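Give me structure tokens for this 147-residue protein.
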Amino acid sequence: MAFCLSCGTGIDEYDSGYYARNMLCIPCYNQKISEVPMVSCNRCGMRIKRSEARERHSDFHCSYCFSEEERQAAIPTCPICNKRVESWQESAKSSKGSLAHLPCLRDGLHSAGHGAGPGVGGSPEESKTHQRTLIRNIIGRIGAFLT
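Here you go.
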């Protein structure tokens, strides 16, 4: 016969949840659970003890979600497309010194005329042509995304 570690009462043999409740009887286990303050992870929703929760920007996270958030925050962001530059993607330093996708840099230099963008020494006709080119590129990317 098993005994509760908190109050010492005997636990019947058919109580299969005894070991899952950390060797406590049902009343002692319910009392212990009600005393422990619990919070939910704001990313995955898992219930965790308040003392074990990790706080980031006034949100509570479990240890896995906290480390994942920190990992994602450390990944550089492309200044052109505002997407993350993953380690497996082709990348290069931009003129400002930040890491950017290589295709974004190529498209940016090509559409901007190698630094002479609209309004910088260009005529209004060049500005309209540049705007049309940007719109065509955007429409082409949306079409490629939808197919």
